[in-house]
Design brief:
The structure is a single chain. This protein has one domain: Alpha-Beta Plaits, CATH 3.30.70.20. The protein has three helices and four strands; from the N terminus they run βαββαβα. The strands form two sheets. It has a two-stranded antiparallel ribbon with strand order 1-4. A hairpin with a 4-residue loop joins strand 2 and strand 3. The longest helix has 10 residues.
Length: 79
């Protein structure tokens, strides 16, 4: 179950700094998770100060789709 970022994200990049596989991408309004890269460790979920991240089983479907789509077109958060 990959992590999913919702629209509470403020782009602080705390999640990206703790992600061991660089699964985060920075879009215009928020960060997103690439589900093909995420290893489901959950570190980002516990570190997010905005509670903007959940696993995909608990996230709204619109955010699951948004993260998957946007991760393909937005640059990596650590680029």
């Amino acid at each position: 179950m990959p992590s999913v970022v919702n629209d509470s994200c403020i782009k602080c990049k705390t999640c990206a700094s703790v992600c061991p596989v660089d699964a985060f991408h920075e879009c215009d309004t928020q960060l997103v998770v690439d589900p093909d890269v995420c290893i489901d460790c959950g570190v980002c979920i516990s570190e997010c100060p905005q509670n903007a991240i959940a696993n995909d089983a608990e996230a709204e479907e619109r955010f699951v789709k948004f993260n998957a789509e946007q991760s393909k077109i937005c640059p990596g958060a650590n680029d």
